Amino acid sequence: MSRSLKKGPYIDEKLLKKISKFKKGDKTIIKTWSRSAIITPEMVGFIFGVHNGKEHIPVQIVEDMVGHKLGEFAPTTKFVRHGGKMQRGLETKTKDKEVAEVKK
Fold first, then answer.
1. What is the pTM for the complete model shown?
2. Structural domain contains residue 91
3. How many domains does the chain contain in total?
């Protein structure tokens, strides 16, 4: 749910101070724990290290991201796979197909 119009977007003040120290297009990663901060046009061109709970995920900001939150681009969970006999059978079939294609 977005914030009300009278409150305006949430932008972390510390993050804006960090941005002002760097030049646009600079390749240094700006680390942040503020996943709920909304991306503004001033952030375009910078690379942020957004914390996902374990590590900082590098996210390069482009124009299409303006208006979204930083946390949307750093997933907190990793899908491993569904297990079981059926999954193993499917995986062996796909491996066999790949091996057959390579041999051709």
1. 0.72
2. no
3. 1
